[in-house]
UniProtKB/TrEMBL annotation:
Pathway: Porphyrin-containing compound metabolism; heme O biosynthesis; heme O from protoheme: step 1/1. This is Protoheme IX farnesyltransferase. Keywords: Cell membrane, Heme biosynthesis, Membrane, Transferase, Transmembrane, Transmembrane helix. GO terms for biological process: heme O biosynthetic process. The lineage of its organism: Bacteria, Pseudomonadati, Pseudomonadota, Alphaproteobacteria, Rhodobacterales. It is an enzyme of class 2 (transferase). It comes from Thioclava indica.
Length: 310
């Protein structure tokens, strides 16, 4: 009699492998910024409709991740940071990942359109297209500006959330887009500073590989200086307020301070401490973005309670 308890082999896909295809850490950022965009919008959304909308936006973000892993399987096998992903590890085939990503893309876009409005569904479809085709298939392997232009895909979710509530676009939603858009290059370039060898080996033209770490450090500082006034200025829009303004002042001061520290470092110093400053800046940049959107969420809560000041 055969044993009914079955243990998958190391090279067989588990449920967790399909979850990994969705890039859950990236998806969490998509979900959070989209949720904030939905909540801070002037038109209230029924909680159930809001939950359904965020669910399908999350699935759309996950679909983008799966299609990205399908197309990038060749370089994922080379890079130390990505070689344990389901496809390079041999647990999920490229064909399975492609089918999974396409199915989720169709379901998420159609259902978001039906549950909310057609514009939001089309916006989600455009975002998936931009991330997979424009960024992954074209820009990523073609130009050191890959993360600059391609970063727009990661900046669209708050606009989609806003579109769910309003059916359109506004200055406030564009401001949230620009906050994420301008944050993305210094965030990823700080990662590229200490992961340069991976990108070199995979022949991905990150700025560190094409122009060197010194130029990359200058670009990080330049973007931090451009980002700060935009981030602080959101405090004076209809979605801002004193709490957000204070948060933005503190976080941008720390962000610029970190960028200046990176700018002033020599390669000898960075090598000596194994890029500790660059790694610290990379992880702080995650807190930076989360803090801004959390402050926007808090301002919306205060306004709902009638406690808004601005």
């Amino acid at each position: 009699m055969s044993d009914i308890s079955y243990i998958p082999q190391d090279n067989e896909a588990r449920f967790g492998d399909y979850i990994a295809l969705l890039k859950p850490r990236v998806m969490s950022l998509v979900v959070f910024t989209a949720f904030v965009g939905l909540v801070v919008a002037p038109n209230p959304v029924h909680p159930f409709v809001g939950f359904v909308a965020i669910l399908f936006i999350a699935l759309g973000g996950g679909a983008s991740g799966a299609l990205n892993m399908w197309y990038d399987a060749d370089i994922d096998r080379i890079m130390r940071r990505t070689r344990s992903r389901p496809i390079p590890a041999g647990r999920v085939t490229e064909r399975e990942a492609l089918g999974f990503g396409l199915a989720l893309s169709g379901i998420s876009c159609v259902m978001l359109a039906l549950a909310t409005n057609v514009f939001a569904g089309l916006f989600l479809a455009f975002t998936i297209f931009f991330y997979v085709v424009v960024y992954t298939m074209w820009l990523k392997r073609a130009t050191p500006q890959n993360i600059v232009i391609g970063g727009a895909a990661g900046a669209f979710p708050p606009m989609i959330g806003w579109a769910v509530a309003t059916g359109g676009i506004s200055i406030e939603s564009v401001a949230m887009f620009l906050l994420v858009f301008l944050w993305t290059p210094p965030h990823f370039w700080s990662l590229a500073l200490f992961m340069k060898a991976d990108y070199d080996e995979a022949k991905v033209p990150m700025l560190t590989s094409t122009h060197g770490r010194t130029v990359t450090r200058k670009h990080i500082l330049a973007y931090a200086l451009v980002l700060a006034p935009l981030a602080v200025g959101i405090g004076f829009t209809s979605i801002g307020g004193p709490l957000y303004f204070a948060t933005a002042l503190v976080m941008n001061a720390l962000f610029i301070k970190g960028a200046i520290e990176i700018y002033g470092r020599s390669e000898a110093q960075a090598e000596a401490d194994k890029y500790a400053v660059e790694k610290r800046f990379f992880y702080f940049s995650l807190i930076y973005l989360f803090a801004h959107f959390l402050a926007l969420l808090a301002e919306a809560g205060l306004s709902y309670l009638g406690l808004g000041i601005w």
